[in-house]
User: Fold Decarboxylating 6-phosphogluconate dehydrogenase from Klenkia sesuvii.
Amino acid sequence: MQLGLIGLGKMGGNMRERVRRAGHEVVGYDRSPDLQDVDSLESLVGALTAPRVVWVMVPAGDPTRETVEALGNLLESGDVVVDGGNSKFTDDQVHADLLATKGIGYVDAGVSGGVWGLENGYALMVGGSKEDVAKVQPIFDALKPPVDAESDSPAGQGAGFVHAGPVGAGHFAKMVHNGIEYGMMQAYGEGYELLTAVDLVEDVPGVIASWTQGTVIRSWLLDLLVRALQEDPGLDDITGWASDSGEGRWTVEQAIEHAVPMPAISASLFARFASRQEDSPTMKAVAALRNQFGGHAVQAAKAREVEDPA
Assistant:
């Protein structure tokens, strides 16, 4: 089948290639001339035969909203738009309602797999009507991991793809997935730090590599930590500064709204906030309080260098 794909960065570009390898035709548009197959959204829509499927793979927020609105003015009744970016699930119904006025379907697709998806396949969590999902199913089948008859996964041959529910369910599922990812990475990071803090363990990378087979904490994330330590055993080439994409925040917000206790994921999110502080105001206040009530010693702030006005 044909697929229009908007956004050909690291993820989108690899997805285009994987879908093509499966025998489908992909017409791609990107603002970068070096990546695009066509030079405009109008050209992309014109190159596809109705009913069309157009997959949007651009940053969440305004870029996605503007792209969906533009497609609403170009596509026809019976066509389907897929948002495969990291949009907040509450945006999905807004997009779906906008397109529905013109008879255009909408599917939200949470996509996991990163830069490794080209070879390994992508995990897909989708939301939308059965009819709209069915129109896109050949593309989902091309993107998802191949069936592994020998897999020891209890999910069996259905692993890697799920029609999670109506519009919004796909991105909600991906949001929770990313929240769990935050917690897992934090746990691995804390374990790594404790191993490096003692003199008793002489081969920290080796210990972590030993966990990748036969243990209950083995995972792809652990494999990636092993890879990182092979490239930089002491992680000396990077700083302990970690950003967040927003999905961890949304997960915690939903936990609060639905009164779901989520201490591990919440703590991992706040740890990322702490990583971006060079001098924590919270801990400065704590140090000041300890000094006030108990006379405990404090460390003086380093004197700031003042430029000579001359």
Summary: The chain has two domains: 2-165, 175-275. Confidence is low (pLDDT under 50) at residues 303-310. DSSP finds twelve helices and seven strands in the chain. The CA atoms of residues 105 and 131 lie 9 Å apart.
